[in-house]
Amino acid sequence: MRWFDPILPSTKIMYLFPVTVAESAVEGKGVFSVGKIPKGAVVWKYVPKHDRSLSQNEYENLNTKEKEYMEKVAYLSLASHQYIFPPENDPALYTNHDAKNHSLSVVMDIAISPEPHFIANREIKPGEELTNNYHEFDASISEKTAPDWLK
What's the Cα-to-Cα distance from 77 to each of 7, 80, 116, 124, rounded to whole Å? Predict the structure, then answer.
C-alpha cells in the first residue's frame, strides 16, 4: 500500500457524473456536482479494480499514521466487512458527511455493485455539494441509521 497526502483532483474518477473538489462549508474540501443530477440516479459505485479494500486484520496491522488516514477516507462495509476506500486522486476521498441534509443515499444491489452504492435522493443542482450520511453504511460508527437494505 502507498500512503500519501492526496493531490486534489478536478475531474470525475469513480463518480458517475462530472464532479469537482473545492472548499466545503461542511468541512475542509468537498465534492461538488458540475451539472444537474436527477433524483434516483446512481451517482457513485464501488468498482473492485479501482477502489481499494483492507480486511479487518490488515487494518489492525497498520501503523498509527495509516490508521488515522483510514479513519478519514475509509468505511467499514456492512456488506463485506472490509475497509473500503478510494485510490489516490479520486474525488470520493472528499465526500463529506451530513446526517440531516445529505444528497446521496446508500443502496445495496449486487446487480450494480458488490458493495453499497449511492443514489441521488433528490435532484442535485449544479455546484451543490454531494454529501452522504456515514451512519447509513459505515459499520465502524457506533450509532447507525440502518439503511432499508440492511433491515
Answer: 25, 6, 8, 26
Domains and CATH numbers, the chain: 19-150 (2.170.270.10)
User: Cell for 150?
Assistant: 440492511
134: cell is: 456515514
pLDDT digits over 115-143, tens only? 989 999 999 999 999 999 988 888 888 65
Q: What is the pLDDT of residues 39-80, one digit of tens each?
A: 999 999 988 888 999 999 999 999 999 998 998 899 999 889
Half-sphere exposure of 102 (CA within 13 A, CB side): 17
Contact at 8 Å (CB) between 114 and 108? Answer: no
pTM of the model: 0.81
